[in-house]
Amino acid sequence: MEGEFAKLLEDSFRRLKQEVITGTVVKVTDREAFIDFGWKSEGVVSLKELGYKPKVGEKIDVCVVEPETEEGYALLSVNCARSIKEWERIASEIEKKGIVKGRIRQRVRGGYKVQLEDGLTVFLPMSQVDIMPVTKPDDWLDKEIEAKVLSVDRKRRSIVISRRRLLEEKRAKMRKETLKRLKEGDVVEGTVKNVVDFGIFVDVDGVDGLVHKSD
Length: 215
What we know:
With 215 residues, the chain is an alpha+beta fold. The protein has helices spanning 2-17, 47-50, 78-97, 163-181, and strands spanning 21-28, 32-36, 43-46, 59-66, 74-77, 99-108, 111-116, 121-125, 144-153, 158-162, 191-196, 199-204, 207-212. The relative contact order is 0.09.
């Protein structure tokens, strides 16, 4: 029974640590503000971190850093709450735009960390870097890219992007426009994509064409 209660407290604290909680100032000393935030005990935040001396009854956004100190209070942070709110604000903007620009900064397991223009770090899976498989992963480091937002996980504060998806969408749009424009007998320029026994495959503005070896 005691073990179950401890687990409930631990789970509850884990949730609180990831959330912004609005608490009420109940006492202020020369160094700290004591805040009631609906926990089993009051929380404390330093005035140095807060940046000013609040009044009793004032509402303050905080997050929990430690569930209980030696003095029996929860240790709270306003900087953590500000950081979470800023992440939420940027994530909402990114979600609306759908397209982001950034620089590939670091290789990690399964992909890369990409720093966006607004400073947020997101994840680019290796399979989403390019239409073709990546054979030299280090060559992509420090490259500026444009990519599509695949997912925003607010619980884990994680954003996944895909350059490949954006390229595929652009290619599909180009292909559609090219097919509308092309007529039999048109002379066009293309890029050789592949050479096979029976001819060559050529890319003409997103449309794959075959030039038979007899031609």
